[in-house]
Design goal:
By secondary structure, the protein is α+β, with helices and mostly antiparallel strands. The protein is about 45% helix and about 20% strand. The chain starts with a helix and ends in a 9-residue tail after the last helix. The structure holds copper (II) ion.
């Protein structure tokens, strides 16, 4: 009776915790960028990332259930077999059934986890036929993205607090003797002032600080992109969490990853191997757009009209945020 009750309580507690964690993960996960108070991984924008998320949940629930089971078992043993409740201990040393069970059950659990894990691994290395191939090259401290067949290269550099202030206020406050004169205002004090003064402008721009780049790359939605990753100097790592892609960029070598984004929007990532003093200042931004938008963006770039290309992506980002029509972009 006691055993059955204990089993039921353990299962209920495990289910409750797993459910609670699952819900919290969904509630606090951002897609494309992290959010305050986030628990769990960023929301998925590719099938691979969906499956990474699923595996993460399965493993997490398994771990939580086992932990709760062991905890309850220990509490039960501490109470039931204490000196007071059990003055004459049993002298049992072996129980064949029990030993077989605690060997077989963990094996089954591990094999059970390994099946979706291997399936995911094979999916990540399946490389479906590409619609587009981009070569990403890490540099200290920015990323070059070369569209190999289109012969277009995009250099993505971080947008700093100083950049957004200059874009808003012009160069005047940065001149000699002015508020942000770099000879007077230096070091940490300078960073603090620039950070505080740019906060409102960042909010207005609706771009994430430390993740925004001057030139995002664009890819068409629902198309397979092969990404070749290498480096010009030290080891970097190209990452977009919502795509489930993370690939080290090693000088002298070219690695390949692939993704197929199924959601439009802007997805951010950061260099993910400590590479030097400005490691934190080489983010990656990928804007996933409809094919016609991508085509007009690429046409503008091939016509060497970077300004128009930037405007196309900006308009598309605003459209996604505000729900405006994109028809004029296709003309
Ligand atoms: Cu880095």
């Amino acid at each position: 009776m006691l055993r059955r009750m204990f089993g039921a309580v353990a299962i209920m507690a495990a289910a409750y915790c797993a459910g609670a964690i699952g819900t919290m993960t969904a509630a606090f996960a951002g897609t494309g960028q992290p959010v305050d108070g986030q628990m769990g991984l960023q929301g998925p924008a590719t099938p691979v990332m969906e499956h990474i998320n699923d595996l993460y949940s399965v493993v997490n629930i398994t771990i939580i259930a086992i932990t709760i089971f062991v905890l309850l078992l220990m509490l039960y043993v501490m109470y039931r077999f204490s000196e007071k409740n059990n003055p004459t201990p049993s002298r049992t040393t072996h129980n064949v059934m029990l030993e077989v069970a605690w060997t077989i059950i963990p094996i089954l659990i591990l094999v059970g986890i390994s099946i979706p894990s291997f399936r995911l691994l094979f999916e990540q290395y399946s490389f479906p036929k590409p619609d587009l191939t981009i070569k990403a090259t890490g540099n200290a401290w920015y990323w070059d993205h070369e569209y190999l067949d289109q012969k277009v290269t995009i250099t993505s550099t971080v947008v700093s607090d100083e950049d957004v202030l200059k874009a808003k206020l012009g160069d005047a406050p940065f001149k000699k003797g002015a508020k942000y004169d770099s000879d007077v205002l230096t070091g940490v004090a300078r960073n603090k002032v620039l950070y505080e003064d740019s906060a409102a402008i960042w909010a207005e721009r609706k771009e994430p600080r430390k993740l925004a780049v001057d030139q995002a790359i664009a890819v068409p939605v629902n198309k397979t992109v092969h990404l070749l990753v290498t480096s010009n100097d030290v080891i970097h790592s190209w990452t977009i969490p919502s795509f489930g892609v993370k690939q080290q960029a090693v000088p002298g070598r070219t690695a390949a990853v692939w993704f197929r984004a199924t959601k439009t929007g802007t997805f951010y990532g950061q260099c993910s191997v400590l590479c030097g003093k400005l490691h934190s200042a080489m983010p990656i931004a990928v804007q996933v757009v409809e094919q016609p938008v991508y085509d007009s963006w690429m046409a503008a770039l091939q016509a060497k009209d970077k300004k128009k290309a930037a405007e196309i992506l900006k308009a598309e980002a605003l459209r996604v945020q505000g729900g405006q029509s994109v028809a004029h972009l296709n003309n």
